[in-house]
Design brief:
Structural class: mainly alpha
Helix content: over 70%
Order of helices and strands: HHHHHH
Shape: elongated
Number of domains: 1
Number of helices: 6
Strand content: under 5%
Radius of gyration: 18 Å
Number of strands: 0
Largest sheet: none
């Protein structure tokens, strides 16, 4: 529960930090880590709590003129993408080499990119026409944002899974020593 709370705090701070660049927020890495290391209930809750809480602030405080409804297709695509990344994290074994979470972060970023940009195009929010070439152009327009998402997710995965690899043995040793002392 403590890990879930800390991940939520990290995600809320990263998303609401006015100094961040567009999409340079490691929410994919947080969702991946939550899926890999938390129980299913907490893992699914982490990205949803982050997104609902920050969307409320963004919609009410930062951009009240652009308010989207709670069932807006693009919002649902974003939420669904993060839930898919949590499920992707469930496939990341605790014993996996460090390459596995990093590779999953790349796959998670791609899932987010493909799903959310398709939703933008399909909902008519994109300035591109509702044709196949318009869809391709919509993806092309989103590439600069994808770079930031990929950097954030890779960096976040390295930090979260790296800290996990370093701290888990230390914390396990302390728990064993405390149990033996009783």
């Amino acid at each position: 529960m403590t890990t879930a709370f800390l991940l939520i705090l990290l995600g809320v701070f990263a998303r609401l930090n006015p100094e961040h660049l567009h999409n340079l927020v490691p929410l994919g890495a947080i969702a991946l880590y939550a899926g890999a290391r938390l129980s299913r209930r907490y893992a699914l809750a982490v990205p949803l709590v982050i997104m609902v809480a920050t969307d409320l602030v963004i919609d009410l405080v930062y951009y009240p003129q652009f308010r989207r409804g709670p069932l807006d297709p693009t919002r649902l695509a974003v939420y669904g993408s993060y839930l898919a990344i949590v499920l992707l994290g469930r496939w990341t074994s605790r014993d996996a080499k460090f390459v596995m979470p990093v590779g999953m972060a790349v796959v998670g970023s791609l899932i987010f990119f493909v799903v959310t940009n398709f939703a933008v195009w399909a909902s008519g929010v994109s300035l591109q026409p509702s044709t196949f070439s318009g869809l391709i152009a919509c993806y092309g327009d989103a590439v600069p944002f994808y770079r930031a998402t990929l950097v954030a997710d890779l960096s976040g995965a390295v930090v979260l899974f790296g800290l996990d690899a370093v701290l888990r043995p230390v914390l396990s040793a302390r728990q064993v020593a405390a149990a033996e002392a009783r």
